[in-house]
Amino acid sequence: ARRSNRARVLARRSERSSKGRRRVIQDLVSLSLFFAAGAALSFVIAWLLLRASEARRDRLTPAPNAVLRIRADSGTFRSHFLQAGKSVWSLGVPMLRDDYVALRVGENLVVEAGDPRGVLIFRTQVVARQTQPQCLFVKRPLRVSLSERRTHARCPKAAGAVVRLGAGEAHLLDLSSGGARVDCSQMAYKGSRMEMKLPWGESVYAWVLETEGSQARLRFEDLVDVRRAKREAAPAA
């Protein structure tokens, strides 16, 4: 009888021990599955964020032949966008007036690119130059910002005013603090830099972003205070 009781006690202890081991194993499996699910979810979220970032960066990539305004330590130049690569972008050789400018490798640049929505702005660095055909390679920017035209203060009352543009005259079709759209008598070349005398007498410099027939869209080098058009009634240039 004693042996039988002892055997039953040992059997119960063995059964409890076995159940305890199974619970531990089950808990470890559950914990492993929890961490695996968390890791998988984190991976999916990171992938989605990366794809969203890449999609946004692609959306903010200048179009081929977009007019560029390049600011470097050595000055401000005009150029045009050629092609976007995964790690580098290629640009046309910068020009000052009608002369090519050789920017040095490693030079930091601030670039403004014309865009139908406004102006794309980014910082980059020259990584290489090519002579045949002539082009400039820069690092693909980590961040590109969009300055939308509609965010600039506008001056509807200036529409129709005659202004001096370069050596000729132009009629204002639209005027904002960031640029203007004009109908000009002289030829305005895409990418050229021109001086404009505003209706209130202030002279500013602007870059021709695009042309269509006799009309041209201009981007001012610096923002102007269009409220002066309401305060001042200076004669047209």
Task: Record the SSE blueprint.
Elements: H1 2-59, E1 67-72, E2 75-84, E3 88-91, E4 95-96, E5 99-100, E6 108-115, E7 118-131, E8 134-139, E9 144-148, E10 162-165, E11 168-175, E12 179-184, E13 193-197, E14 203-212, E15 215-220, H2 228-231
Key terms for this structure?
237 residues; alpha+beta; 6-stranded antiparallel beta barrel; 6-stranded antiparallel barrel; elongated; disordered C terminus
What's this model, at a glance?
Helix content is 26%, strand content 41%. With 237 residues, it is α+β, with helices and mostly antiparallel strands.
Strand tally: 15
Q: State the separation between the terminal residues, measured CA to CA.
A: 123 Å
Query: Radius of gyration from the CA trace?
Result: 33 Å
- Which spans of ≥5 residues are poorly predicted at pLDDT below 50? 233-237
Percent of residues in beta strands? 35-45%
For the biggest β-sheet, the strand order reads 1-2-3-8-7-6
Order of helices and strands: HEEEEEEEEEEEEEEEH
What does the average pLDDT come to? 79
Oligomer: single chain
Approximate helicity band: 25-40%
Q: Report the total helices.
A: 2
* Shape summary: elongated
Q: Describe the biggest sheet? A: 6 strands, antiparallel, barrel
Structural class label:
alpha+beta
Explain this structure.
The protein has 237 residues and is of the alpha+beta class. Helix content is 26%, strand content 41%. The protein contains two helices and 15 strands. The protein has helices spanning 2-59, 228-231, and strands at residues 67-72, 75-84, 88-91, 95-96, 99-100, 108-115, 118-131, 134-139, 144-148, 162-165, 168-175, 179-184, 193-197, 203-212, 215-220. The protein has a six-stranded antiparallel β-barrel with strand order 1-2-3-8-7-6. Strands 10-11-12-15-14-13 form a six-stranded antiparallel barrel. Strand 6 (108-115) and strand 7 (118-131) form a beta hairpin. The model is unreliable at 233-237 (pLDDT under 50).
